[in-house]
Fold this protein.
Amino acid sequence: MKKTVLATAVCAALAAPAWAQTTPPATEAAPAAASPLTGNLGLFSSYRFRGIDQTFGKPALQGGIDYAHESGFYLGNWNSNVSSGAGFPDGNLEMDFYGGYKATFGDVGLDVGAIYYYYPGSYARGLGLGANSGTVNNKEIYIGGSWKFLSLKYFYAVDDYFSLRGLNSAGPTDKSTKGTQYLDFSVNYDLGDGWGINGHVGRLNLKNVRNGDYTDWKLGVSKDIKGWVLALSYVDSNAKGRCRDGEPYCFTNSMSDNGGVVSVGSHSKDAGRGIGVLSVSRTF
């Protein structure tokens, strides 16, 4: 679930005035055109999606590829290892596929699109959806706006949120979690000399799930060293994850579906607890 997805490459060709030219135009080399394809690769000490632990505190290797057309339309794919105990029975890989349109108007930016989260090898029936419920997945549409170093993005689930069904004080229900919403407000400020600071506050409204709503936040610093970005962030939330009370964000170290019989790992922890995350990444 990629928290910083959908990066679009934008380039502008600037023509030098005639008086500034030191060689005849015919002998000048044409500037290299920026490629519409970019890739990214990163190693993270832990993978947090919307403030929630996806790897049971273990490291994550993440990477993807993006295509950005000069018209503003884009497509991309991003991937990460995950823990099956984070709600993906027998699954250990997340694959995100997305596409949309971006435009800028001076300092103002617009971003609209859709994203599909897919967990190959996982069994949604392990989450209580029945024997023919297929692979765990999630489908969202989004719209976002930005101004300089500030951005705001809204996500809406058009199907059951990560294949979950409802939950109330009496236990699981057959109510849909379609219509779950997430609002993301982020700040990314360039301090110069390769340094940057970033912050985030998000709010999830999980439909028809008792104690499913929560707020998450992040504060971090980064340093660009010859294209490699080193970053340290503190991530936290007020998600209900106390295991002794059976709250929804108590995750186990593993989850498996054996013909409809679900088995879970021997260890559990609060998946929304505060944690420091160290990472190194590069875009190429």
